[in-house]
Amino acid sequence: MGEENEKVEFKTSTAELQSALNSIVAILNKHQKGILYFGIKNNGKPVGQIIKQNTLRDVSRTITDHIEPKIFPIVEKVMLEGKECIKVEFEGNDIPYFANGRAYIRVSDEDKKISQNELRKMIIETERKNDKWEEKPSDISIDDIDEETLIKFIEKGNKKGRINYEYTNKEDILKRLNLIDKNGKIKNAGNVLFGKNPDVDLRCAIFATEEKSTFLDMQDYSGNIFKLIDIGEQYISKNIRWSANFNTGSFTREDVPEIPMTAIREALCNAFGHRSWDEPYSVNIAIYSNRIELDNPGHFTEEAKPSDYINKQEPSRPRNPLIVKILYLSGEIETWGTGLRKIYSVCKKENLKVDFEDRKLAFFVVFFRKDLEGLIKNTQKDLSNKVESKVESKVESKLTTNQKKILELLNLDPNMILSELSRKSWNICYICIK
């Protein structure tokens, strides 16, 4: 019979029926279907089960009466290695399931109680899968669509080569983008992406220290997704440190942000694209003395961890596929499912630490800021090196051949005494004259 696993459970007899209920809901909550046997030991060896006239009915009734939402399993007698056993097949998609008021989750071959926080996340995830918020009709009309944003979107998509048609009018474009449903209603996705006054918020704050004790600035913004992405990027750009890079082969100064702006914009696109729209919260930007945090309502997918997308190239499972598709067409994101990997690789290249954290109420991207003193020293060093190089170049161009030779001797031995320098330089001059 093999061994127990995440979808198969063995019970020695129906005396373990109450424990079997826990296993059934644990498997349902993880995989939505499974099999349980009575009359088999944990090691997979059939030992048989006494099956009376009402045994199968009692098992079926107990399962139906004590598991919520109700399921209706297939309960039948089977012969395994000459032993009479009971096979229970079950399935259901209305997670979470409860046995006698308690919820469980399958972990390997064990049934673990689900915590309140895990249960809440499971409910939200189930609602997301079964009822797509972005596909629902909104209460706005074509007049409430911001035409300027829509025109810019088409222009960007054309430039990226991801849209092969020109702008015509608002209604035609929304239909092409699947943002109008079969009843002629603009979908929620259309409202938050292109609406004039959608209920979408961005909160930005600067704190004096590493804690949320004293804030130096706080701003609340409203608008559609495209406008808020631009606003968020500008807010961070104006309130982070920039250093001057002079290692560009000339005196032209290159301003370099302490955190790559490509990573910042990618994080903002992810925040709006993957947020839970059922949560009545804003996307937030918090700038601390040592870090910058971007968070969005909703949790990371249950099926994977952030590291899976960074290291294992996990396929994309966006919470809002329609919204994400529109962001892709505009060129805001390059490829589905690569956002975290892009943020991580860009920061790694700049030797910058970044964390991805799934906290109690939101998903966070945390950029750790570079040391201010170090930035100042590096800028001063770059400038000093550039000035020194330029000065040496100008001076060297004015030197005679003999003067250049003397400088070469001093470079080889800065402590050379004057008489030795005079002798060697005289020899050089004599050779040059000859």
Question: Which secondary structure elements does this structure contain, and how are they paired or packed?
Answer:
Blueprint: E1 8-11, H1 17-31, E2 33-38, H2 55-66, E3 67-68, E4 74-80, E5 83-91, E6 98-99, E7 104-107, E8 110-113, H3 116-130, H4 147-160, H5 170-176, H6 188-194, E9 201-207, E10 215-222, H7 225-238, E11 242-245, E12 254-257, H8 261-274, E13 283-287, E14 291-297, H9 306-311, H10 321-329, H11 339-349, E15 354-358, E16 362-368, H12 372-398, H13 401-412, H14 418-433
Parallel strand pairs: 1-2, 9-13
Antiparallel strand pairs: 2-5, 3-6, 4-5, 7-8, 9-10, 11-12, 13-14, 14-16, 15-16
Helix pairs in contact: 7-8, 8-11, 13-14
Question: Could you explain how this protein is built, in words?
Answer:
There is one protein chain. The chain has 434 residues and is α+β, with helices and mostly antiparallel strands. It folds into three domains: 8-114, Methyltransferase, Cobalt-precorrin-4 Transmethylase, Domain 2; 130-239 and 259-369, 2-Layer Sandwich (Heat Shock Protein 90), CATH 3.30.565.60; 399-434. It contains 14 helices and 16 strands. It is extended. The chain starts with 7 loop residues before the first strand and ends with a helix. Residues 428-434 have low confidence and may be disordered.
